[in-house]
TrEMBL record:
Residues 1-10 have a biased composition (Pro residues). It comes from the Bacteria. Residues 75-144 form the Luciferase domain. This is DUF5519 family protein. Pfam families: Luciferase. It comes from Nocardioides cremeus. Residues 11-20 have a biased composition (Polar residues).
């Protein structure tokens, strides 16, 4: 996984787990991200059952939700997008993928996951600031989706050009 350019953004240390700076200047990265994940097979978009008001959740019907219990935050919700001005995402990744995303600077472990209350693969993926970062974030959502449906995660996490 390529390294995220620049320093990590500031975030809150507890719930609600929020990104405080480094948001995109306009809606184009968010629109690009949603365009790439908006048609994942079987995904039902709904209001998040665990996040702040206005957060959009990616959920699965019970049938396709074949991943392990640790693939979900609550019910069959495996990811959600925070509304503006935050624009970060929370999602659940297989622990090795979560570790790689954290190490490369794209994510941080959710504070409640650090306490062992929710899946250790629950992470905040930082708000994409441009098209390149939207592609990486979309790849991480696809990896979360693969985990939630019980499939092998994709080999790549999006745009693989070095940065």
């Amino acid at each position: 996984m390529p390294q995220r350019p620049g320093p990590r953004p500031s975030t809150t240390p507890t719930n609600p787990h929020t990104q405080l700076d480094q948001q995109p200047r306009d809606d184009q990265p968010r629109e690009r991200l949603i365009g790439q994940i908006g048609t994942l097979p079987g995904v039902v978009w709904a209001g998040s059952m665990i996040s702040v008001p206005g957060a959009q959740a990616l959920t699965l019907p019970q049938g396709p939700a074949q991943g392990p219990p640790d693939a979900f935050m609550i019910g069959t919700e495996f990811a959600h997008l925070h509304p503006s001005p935050d624009q970060s995402l929370h999602l659940v990744l297989p622990p090795p993928t979560a570790e790689a995303a954290i190490e490369a600077g794209w994510a941080e472990q959710h504070p409640i996951a650090r306490l062992g209350i929710i899946s250790p693969g629950a992470v905040m993926v930082y708000a994409p600031r441009d098209a390149y970062e939207a592609d990486i974030a979309a790849g991480l959502v696809r990896a979360s989706y693969a985990y939630a449906i019980g499939a092998e995660p994709p080999i790549t996490t999006g745009n693989e050009r070095g940065h």
